[in-house]
Amino acid sequence: MQVAVSILHILFSISIIVIVLLQSGKQAGLSGSIAGGAETFFGKNKGRTIDALLSKYTAVAAIGFLITCVALQLILNSK
């Protein structure tokens, strides 16, 4: 049981790292501030963009990481 949870824990931690690195930064410099008005005007489909999808995946991976942390702690304390 401990081995399976540990493998899941490692997979969640690697997935969090990869997903966060794939996301674009919130500040894009001067060009981001100029284009920011256009983004809010044309941003009706913001929930369908890649950044929104990666944000959702980050949340799922973080919840999975938290659950495996708690599970590992319970497994190790029960011994």
TrEMBL record:
- GO biological process terms, semicolon-separated: intracellular protein transmembrane transport; protein secretion; protein transport by the Sec complex
Function in brief: Involved in protein export. Participates in an early event of protein translocation.
CC terms in the record's Gene Ontology section:
plasma membrane
Show the stretches that span the lipid bilayer.
6-22, 54-76
Entry's Gene Ontology molecular function annotations: protein-transporting ATPase activity
What top-level branch of life does the organism fall under?
Bacteria
Which protein, by its recorded name, is this? Answer: Protein-export membrane protein SecG
Under InterPro entries, the record lists: SecG
Entry's family note: Belongs to the SecG family.
State the compartments where it is located.
Cell membrane
**Which keywords annotate this record?**
Cell membrane, Membrane, Protein transport, Translocation, Transmembrane, Transmembrane helix, Transport
- How the protein sits in the membrane? Multi-pass membrane protein
